[in-house]
Amino acid sequence: MRVLIVDDHELFRAGLALLLRELFPNIELLHASTLSQGVNHALGELLNIVFLDLDLPDGHGCNALAELKESRPSLPVIVISADESVETISRCIELRAMGYVPKSSPPEALHAAISAVLAGGVFLPASSIARLRRDMGTDETPANGPVKAQSSGNSEMSNASELGLTPREFETLAWLVRGLPSKAIALRMGIEDITVRKYVSHLLAHFNLRRRTELIVTLADRGIKLGVPPVTDPAHDRSLSAVGRPRTD
């Protein structure tokens, strides 16, 4: 597994690296202290995932996430930030972050969060999920799928049958969670964009939701894991240039 850490605090990068190596002894880590360094790494390296701080010397707030996702649309990004406002968390989800980990998390919580996202799950602060669901109007909306939510610390991964999905719907869901827009998913899966949109509609109906952002919050709330994100190739992302900037719905 190859992971990029983009954070301007060397001590925090070192601590995060220790946690990652504890979870994955053979992990290969790349470090960047600025957004420009992070983008350069992302454009030139085969990577599974990026951990991104929002407060960088040359890129502040959600603009840093937007720039990184624009450069590498297929690369999953987990935001790790001292900003714990629900508004910032919600905006990052809209910008196709795969999850959000507060820097104030105690080591055991950070450990569980990292374990979850590297297993293909979505992690959001527990304190923010209820507010996000309420703001989105889904706090009392029943969702289909597994009856019992998994613990975020549970390493078991879901499969299509457990979620009541077809294999192609499950694959579409995994790419949606990792932050790809529908046209990029179509290229990845070798199918037409209209077919991907049909799968997305089925997924939203299956979970009784309306938008991708609601889906991300639901998956985080229920601790569903979809498998380790595959290595993404920057050369392939260049073929996505015609897709345009990712949608936020």
UniProtKB/TrEMBL annotation:
Domain Response regulatory positions: 2-118
Classification lineage: Bacteria, Pseudomonadati, Pseudomonadota, Betaproteobacteria, Burkholderiales
Residues covered by region (Disordered): 136-162, 230-249
Protein name according to UniProt: LuxR family transcriptional regulator
Residue ranges constituting the HTH luxR-type domain according to the UniProt record: 158-223
Highest taxon of the lineage: Bacteria
InterPro entries documented for this protein: CheY-like_superfamily, EvgA-like, NreC/VraR/RcsB-like_REC, Sig_transdc_resp-reg_C-effctor, Sig_transdc_resp-reg_receiver, Tscrpt_reg_LuxR_C
Modified sites of kind 4-aspartylphosphate: 53
